[in-house]
Amino acid sequence: MTASEPGLFRVGVTRDFIRSNGELGFGGAGVRLLEQTPGIEVTFLPEHGRELRPEDIAGFDALGVLGPRVTPATLKGNGRLALVARFGVGYDNIDIPACTAAGVVLTITPEAVQRPMAVVNLTFILALAGRLLEQDKLTREGRWADKQDARGTGLVDKTLGTIGFGRIAQETHTIARPLGMRHVAHDPYADPAVAKSAGVELIDLETLLRESDFVVVAAALTPETHHLINAERLALMKPTAFLISTARGPLVDQTALYEALRERRIAGAGMDVFEQEPVDPDDPILQLENVIVTPHGLCWTDECERIMGESVLRSIQAVAAGRMPEHVVNRDVGETAKMREKLRRYGERMER
Are 48 and 73 in contact (CB under 8 A)? Predict the structure, then answer.
């Protein structure tokens, strides 16, 4: 574990933080925060594809990662890397067992996206209920007299259902509470006491789909939840209901969703995520008028960027000081001999 300069903790940042014009894009505030912190040397990784290569990450103590994949091949032969700090809450692009086997801790930034993502969900609820895009279009086309053709849906006594009851889903229910809706959720891992205190009824998935007027997909993507929302489950929804997909695209069978929207078997959808990203501009789902689409970036606000950068910095500072950080995904890595040895070395270096 040799350093490029004694005492410096070297952090490699993935290049998808850099826009095509060379400027820092989303997450830029977090990268700048790292660059301004003494004792940390920040370097952007070389050009990379969808998967980081061993040579891309050689010589770094930590990685700050957005989209590229970290796989067993990425970590092969690397004895120095100690931390993969994911800017965000999803980690389906990171191979967790490979990190643990290599003595690499994986952290995420849940506190940064909890409120911004809940606001995203609420934004879609309000825009879909108010038929905002249709109202905008007819106004621009001078069809003032046609506004009754885009009459919206009231929210009082409607049912908001979240598939998942983690931080983001809980926050979604919290900020939607004043709208006067019924609140339900499906999550086999949810704490009933937490749900009860939040005024959220835990029900089975099929009942949630049948009874909800707004279905928010807020689950983690795992092999078990891939295409959790498929043709059969979409068929359970009311023809007046809306689906909101903001977690991970593959949770929803996009072909099945397209058919349900095209045939008006559900009223509409809000999509911030897609099965393939970036989404193909020729994807037929983009041609539908009853779907609102955004480029997996609606939560990227100045607030989100600031909190995310602060969270990643805390993870880096903890590991650089020889401590386990907060928000660790692979908690068992702390028991491995490789991780303990790395933390010991960092701690001794801090004491010198």
Answer: no
